[in-house]
Specification:
With 466 residues, the protein is an alpha/beta fold. The chain is 24% helix and 26% strand. The longest helix has 24 residues, at 441-464. The structure holds flavin-adenine dinucleotide and iron/sulfur cluster (SF4) (2 copies). Residues 130, 135-141, 175, 197, 199, 201-202 line the site of one iron/sulfur cluster (SF4).
Length: 466
Amino acid sequence: MILFETIFIYRNIHTPFFLKHADRHEEITLNNNAVLVVGGGIAGMQASLDLANRGSRVYLVEKSPSIGGRMAQLDKTFPTMDCSICILAPKMIECFRHPNINLLTCSEVQEVAGSAGDFKVKIVKNPRFVDDDKCTGCGVCAEKCPVKVPSEFDMGMGTRKAIYMTFPQAVPRITAIDEDRCLYFQKGVCKVCEKFCPAHAINFNQKREETTLDVASIILATGLKLYDPASISEYGYKRYKNVLLSLELERLINASGPTRGELLTPSSSKHPRRIAFIQCVGSRALQKGLPYCSSVCCMYATKEAILIREHEPTCEVYILYTDLRVFGKRFQEFVNTARDERKVKYVNGRVALIVEDPTTKDLLIRYENIAEGKLSELRADLVVLCPALMPREDNKHLAEILNIGLNEYGFFETKDSLLMPVETNVEGVFVCGYCQGPKDIAESVTQASAAAARAAEIAISTITGG
Ligand SMILES: Cc1cc2nc3c(=O)[nH]c(=O)nc-3n(C[C@H](O)[C@H](O)[C@H](O)COP(=O)(O)OP(=O)(O)OC[C@H]3O[C@@H](n4cnc5c(N)ncnc54)[C@H](O)[C@@H]3O)c2cc1C
Ligand code: SF4
Ligand code: SF4
């Protein structure tokens, strides 16, 4: 028999910082076991919502000031071409409002003890220097703050202030002070934000807080990072202004991005006439980079090419690929639409070198034309690199404290990749999303639901003694 009891939801938490959201929750009836989800991207959010909707208590731990992950940075999503933030934002808000989810942002897992059904997890919450209870998200502090720094969310192409909200739709809507950039923390002067905040929410004395959670199972969903192609000097990334990364392009064509969605070349702020995408930058590489296929790049390059043709109908778009990794009817149809209707030009070519014209800043791409078996050249005024996607460094620490396996590239290992695709070698610890291996949003969501189902089984069997 499954036991249910009526409890106050903060009963098994030991420190006061979670109580700050107490006004949003009421006394509810729930299963007395809890699940920890690490990472608030689309995979972690989906797992949290599935669990919460079936009555489990969820602690969703996100290390940055907002949930959303990479999907929040995307303009549109393949293959549906939905506006990414439009489908993501309702899920973010649902996670925030759900009575069974405790959202712990600016937080990280420090230690784990115990075993399946009875894990004790030490969480560290880093200070925002803004009181969660008082901040209304009005943004006056950021408006008045005199310090401008590159915005990580906009891939360094736009700016934010030293006190900031990561992006306009951030959840929770609470600002945070970047201690390393703030004049008060660095030089002992300023406090302008404190002076102007109408809610008196600024608190320069906030400290790191620690708490221990009791959970039955754990789901890891720490996502992906981009390979830095600066190490492949032939491509000129960081040396040539008009060589961009795919995620930088997503921000450039986004209406809330640094150019308000207007696609302009960084060197001249003019509309580009010819853009070339280069696939497999550091992926499937024998020498520089990683040998595996990042799985989503052929599809997102096609998506970005379609979007460019929509934004700039006179701009030519080329995709230079080694092998086009497009599987299934739906994805093939997507590429066919790009090629036949949007006139995107797919070239089977392996790029050897990019050279910048010092006067025009145009880029001359030298490549091996695989189909024609000869060396060819293409001139473009913007080059978009599609870099390998990799697991985050964080996986190492988590694998160590949880005693779970990582593969040679740093992805979390599952017990059996064929038949147990969410179970790790430690009972009660599950994985989902890109941190387990390359996958798109739909696959991340599917794996998250599978991980949630398995994590819930542990919680229930603990209660029933099964
Ligand atoms: C340029 C580009 C375009 C793309 N376009 C598409 C597309 O159109 N369609 C599609 O299906 N897919 C697309 N993808 C792939 C898609 O982004 C991923 O499939 C998806 O983001 C994976 O979600 P995730 O939740 O696993 O990881 P993420 O989105 O990376 O989220 C992980 C979260 O975990 C947090 N985190 C990390 N470490 C910790 C820690 N130690 N503690 C707490 N929190 C932590 C991170 O801050 C982050 O919020 C694209 C990818 C790129 C790079
Ligand atoms: S800290 Fe104050 S000024 Fe800044 S967003 Fe919050 S309430 Fe507004
Ligand atoms: S104290 Fe820091 S965060 Fe506040 S306004 Fe000054 S520089 Fe900005």
